[in-house]
Amino acid sequence: MRSIVVKIGSSSVTRSTGPDPVVLTSALDAALNVRSLGWNVVLVSSGAVASGSAYLARTSAVQGSARLAAAVGQPFLMDIYRSVSEVSGRHVCQVLISESDLRSARAMSAVRDVLAECQAAGIVPVVNGNDVTDSHGSDNDGIAVGLAVESGADRLLLLTDVAGVHDGSAGAAHLPDLAATEIRAVPTGRRAGTGRGGMRSKLRAAELAAYNGIETHIAAARQPGVITACVKGEPVGTRIRPARDRFPPESRWIAGVAISHGSIVINRPAEESIRSGASLFASGIKKVDGQFAGGDVIEVVTPAGRLVARGVSKVSATLMGLIRAMRTDEIAIVVTEILARFLRGEGPGRPAVDHAALRPPVVKALDIVGSYGYELTRRLALEIINLFPAATVEAMLDAGRDEGLAQLRERYSRLSSDLSFIDRNRLVVF
Prior knowledge:
The protein has 3 domains: 2-254, Carbamate kinase; 259-319 and 422-429, Roll (Archaeosine Trna-guanine Transglycosylase, Chain: A, domain 4), CATH 2.30.130.10; 323-418, no CATH class. Helix content is 45%, strand content 19%. It has 17 helices and 15 strands. The chain has helices at residues 10-13, 21-33, 48-59, 66-88, 99-102, 105-121, 140-151, 198-210, 226-231, 252-257, 268-275, 317-323, 328-344, 360-371, 374-387, 389-398, 401-415, and strands at 2-8, 14-15, 18-19, 39-45, 91-97, 123-129, 155-160, 177-178, 215-220, 238-240, 262-266, 285-290, 297-301, 307-313, 422-429.
């Protein structure tokens, strides 16, 4: 059987008084009935926070947190879904996914296996982000595309309270079709609905789905028969076409499931290099966005914003931002200065390196290093030592401190020529 992941936004499933049983009933009825058309459905349902907030406002004098509202509201949603399924003699189950699950390939593999069991048993899984444990609230658009990619779904349907994606023109109808390469040019100043994500979140989910070989539709939740129409291939909302074939299962976590913690902008030679199978070096990085650590998944984009790849960063955003676009000898100057300040136990102060004959980007990086407190310097120094453990220990043990640092700069200059900023074996190029 083919499969579709359907996500319904908060603004579509709730009213001021709580969950909207009409929308929820319609969605689940469709999910139960399209199995006769050869499709399995995973239903990602928002609305726990809004439902719980409405209930607490009616019954309690205490204004609870969003976490409490989610804990209260989740049973309300499932009560409605369960009552609908029991009428038809079918079954539903609940799956809560936290942000930590999306960061773990093993956890998402377990979720994929549970969804496969549901399909085999004819059970419709109702998925929601775990707003009780996620500190910033759940991103159900991200969860929906993550599930679609992980499970190898054929289609993703993002339901909201507008008919589709608009290009921003006054009075214009929604776009019937949109290419993945056009997504980042779509204006998204007006939010779609009252949920956390808005249209920008849906478009980013659709972009990721497209680069993972999945067709996506963004459509109105209250359009009669919208889920069935989408399954039948009828025009529904805005369609974002797949940009390539699906990846094999072993590549999917990096390609589209894991949360992206930031992005780097690369130049044209760097793009050509990674497309040919080579590594990504500092000289090809133009800009660093986000606060990621070594081991986090990040996106690689062009200056125009086109998505090129996703991969696991070897270094933090802080260190990458300091040494991007530098030559190997310049990288050695900066990282050795960080290590020297750490060994001297220094806080903010002017770097000891002579600025004469250095390029302005190197001088700027050294000044930034000089502004760091000791704790940040320590973290960066430990990160550098982990990148070059043998060379660092060997240089510091073979000579006195000053001689050791001079040797270390020379060693770092040679080693930096092979320093790939994204693990080549954990890079997925689109």
